[in-house]
Write a structure and sequence with these properties.
Elements: H1 10-38, H2 42-53, E1 58-60, H3 61-68, H4 72-84, E2 88-92, E3 100-104, H5 106-126, H6 133-152
Antiparallel strand pairs: 1-3, 2-3
Helix pairs in contact: 1-5, 2-5, 3-4
InterPro entries: HTH_MarR-typ, MarR/SlyA-like, WH-like_DNA-bd_sf, WH_DNA-bd_sf
Organism: Micromonospora sediminimaris
Domain HTH marR-type: 1-148
Amino acid sequence: MDPTPRWLTSQQQVAWDSFIRMQEKLIGRLARRIQADSGMSAADYIVLVKLTETSGGRMRLTDLAKQVEWEKSRMSHQVRRMAERGLVAKEECPDDGRGAFIAATPAGCKAIEDASPLHVEHVRRLFIDALSQEELDMLASISDRVRAHLESQPD
C-alpha cells in the first residue's frame, strides 16, 4: 500500500460529506418511524425482512449476518433479543447437527406485515418523492456500480 494518502479533492469531499449526511439523516428518520409505528427497532425490521423474503422464512445465522453486513456476534445478540420477544426462533438443521436456522415466527411475520405498509410510505415520502424517475434510475446505477466495486475490493 502506498504510504502517501490520496486525499480527497474539495469536490470529492463535498460529495462524500453530502452522501454521508443524507444517508445518516434518512436512516435515522426511518429508524425512528419504524420504532414509533411498530415498536420494532430498525434492526428487528431488517432481520424480519430478510427472513420473510426467503422461501421458508428461515436462514442460517451466518447467511443472515452476511445479508445485512453484520458481524456474527452482533447477529447472535439481535436474534437472541428477537427470540425473547417471540419474533424469531431457532430451528434445528437436519443436515448439520451443529447448525441451526433462524426462522420468522408467526408473530414475526405478522409484525413485518403490519409494519411494511407504513415503512414503505415513509420511504416514499422521505426519499422516493424527492427524486425524478431519471434520478432514481441514475442512483440505482451508481449504487450498483459502487456495490460491484466493493465486492472486488478486500474487506
